[in-house]
Write a structure and sequence with these properties.
α7 runs antiparallel to α8. This protein is globular. Helix content is 42%, strand content 15%. It has 23 helices and 16 strands. The protein folds into four domains: 3-93, Glutaredoxin (3-Layer(aba) Sandwich); 111-320, NADH-ubiquinone oxidoreductase 51kDa subunit (Rossmann fold), CATH 3.40.50; 323-413, Roll (Ubiquitin-like (UB roll)), CATH 3.10.20.600; 418-508, Up-down Bundle (de novo design (two linked rop proteins)). A hairpin with a 2-residue loop joins β3 and β4. With 509 residues, it is α/β, with parallel strands linked by helices. The strands form four sheets. It has a five-stranded mixed beta sheet, covered by helices on one side.
């Protein structure tokens, strides 16, 4: 029986992957559901197992199947949708896949498949070398938090390991709410054991016996896939009271959020995990000292934790040798918005923004000129093409008043109105603020009012000055990054696209 791999990633499901899988099953093919390879313009992309390896076809619709089958699909036959070996597709061939190496390759619910593709080697090594050496290895790799802050992972783990408390916890932040981001979802749907293994390694390193994954409610397929993987990991001895026969106990529980963007902030997430309203906590104390239920807690992003198995299996040097400056290893760059080739591209830091948008993404989907790119979600700055020489690196973006965030890259063509985008940033902040601090709670509302006055042509210059002052107050006076970073999109729009503010004002006169 011919084996055919059909993605069960949410992007592929939205484009009819389930119907394709059902039709292939009716043709007596052995259908294996996998994650996505991350080339969304080719989804659903199916792969047929042949004696020469997998052969990919895409994008496939249910209406294409009769013609594909007649052309010898199940033997890798020629067809206009035939893409050849997936590894030879230029978008995939140009990547450095450490964290996403198994996505689109393995059955995400099979622990045996995960093991067959190198899984659990990192956990076995962590158990063998012990907590201190494990932390030293992660530190030497140069891994920094992939959730946006870029804090050194090894330093955070060492703080928790050195802290005193009756118990310690590992928390994975899977509340992926930034615009243009989907790496957490892709990994949890396509390779959930990587997150499980990374959390287990963190547990070994800091002496924690329990882990929690806080997943956004808008990800039903990721939630289901992760629950399936948790059950398989327990049944296979990769979780539980005796991990891999080591005598070390560690287990994981998944919790589902209720849709609040602010719960992506680590302390608001901890409040929600404790059953409270998702509000930001004042720091200090840091969660590493007093976190979940008052105990020392590692809070890491999904991609941060899922990067650890590679580091432990292949060694810190293999990871550290890739990257740029202080940004070591790889980053899953997520291409979205008005872009021809949307998807996930994992590569070492060091590409320029222009290479990412034009070379990898192929420019805009509309064919119109690129006018602005927002990197880092709704809190990220808008960069014009004049800044396309900016290197994709934490420090390089910070030097130009931008941020990488979770790696989302959203592209806009020349029809975008940046003044309205600035207003949207303030509106978003007002809607999503937890309400605890005045600069964020009140400043965002005042920001909308000021921009409305500018757009209506009232005292434009005076209100532009007021908007700058308000942004400074929010940037330095807010309790967390929501209010503190909202000035980035506002001020970048004003700095790089001032004509949008004054043009609208003149039109109103």
């Amino acid at each position: 029986m011919t084996r055919v791999y059909v993605p069960c990633d949410a992007a592929a499901l939205a484009l009819g992957a389930d119907r394709i899988a059902a039709a292939l099953t009716a043709q007596r093919a052995e259908v294996v559901r996998t994650g996505s390879r991350g080339m969304f313009w080719l989804e659903p992309m199916i792969e047929v197992e042949t004696s020469a390896g997998r052969i990919a076809y895409g994008p496939v619709t249910p209406a294409d199947l009769p013609g594909l089958l007649a052309s010898g699909l199940l033997a890798g036959g020629m067809h206009r949708l035939r893409l050849g070996p997936p590894e030879d597709i230029a978008f995939l061939a140009g990547q450095t896949r450490f964290t996403f190496a198994r996505c689109g390759v393995v059955d995400p619910g099979s622990l045996a498949d995960y093991r067959a593709h190198g899984g659990l080697r990192g956990l076995a090594r962590a158990i063998e070398i012990g907590p201190a050496a494990t932390i030293a290895e992660v530190t030497a790799s140069g891994l920094r938090g992939r959730g946006g802050a870029g804090f050194p992972t090894g330093s955070k783990w060492k703080t928790v390991a050195d802290a005193s408390g009756p118990r310690k916890c590992i928390v994975a932040n899977a509340d992926e709410g930034d615009s243009g981001t989907f790496a957490d979802r892709m990994l949890m749907e396509g390779d959930p054991f990587a997150l499980i293994e990374g959390m287990a390694i963190a547990g070994v390193a800091v002496g924690a016996s329990k882990g929690y994954v806080y997943t956004r409610s808008e990800y039903p397929h990721a939630i289901a896939a992760f629950d399936t993987a948790l059950a398989a990991a327990r049944a296979g001895g990769a979780l539980g009271p005796d991990m891999l026969g080591s005598g070390i106990g560690f287990d994981i529980e998944q919790r589902v959020g209720a849709g609040a963007y602010i719960c992506g902030e680590e302390t608001a997430l901890l409040e929600s995990l404790e059953g409270k309203r998702g509000q930001v906590r004042a720091k200090p104390p840091l969660p590493a000292i007093k976190g979940l239920f008052g105990q020392p807690t590692v809070v890491n992003n999904v991609i941060t934790l899922a990067s650890v198995p590679f580091i432990m299996a292949e060694g810190a040097r293999a990871y550290h040798d890739v990257g740029y400056g202080r940004s070591r290893g790889t980053m899953p760059i997520q291409l979205a918005g008005n872009i021809r080739h949307g998807g996930l591209f994992e590569a070492g830091f060091g590409l320029t923004l222009g290479e990412i948008v034009n070379d990898l993404g192929g420019g805009t989907a509309t064919g119109r000129p690129v006018r602005a790119v927002q990197v880092g979600g709704p809190l990220g700055a808008y960069f014009p093409p004049a800044l396309f020489d900016t290197v994709f690196d934490y420090e390089a973006f910070a030097a130009r008043d931008g941020l990488i965030g979770h790696g989302g890259v959203v592209v806009f063509d020349d029809t975008v109105d940046l003044a309205h985008q600035a207003r949207f940033a303030m509106e978003f902040c007002a809607a999503e603020s937890c309400g605890k601090c005045t600069p964020c709670r009140i400043g965002s509302v005042r920001g909308m009012e000021v921009i409305d006055r500018i757009l209506s042509g009232r005292d434009v210059e005076a209100n532009l000055d007021l908007l700058r002052d308000l942004s400074e107050t929010m940037k330095f006076g807010s309790l967390c990054a929501l209010g503190g970073f909202i000035p980035y999109p506002v001020m970048s729009a004003l700095t790089h696209f001032p004509e949008d503010f004054r043009r609208l004002a003149r039109a109103a006169e």
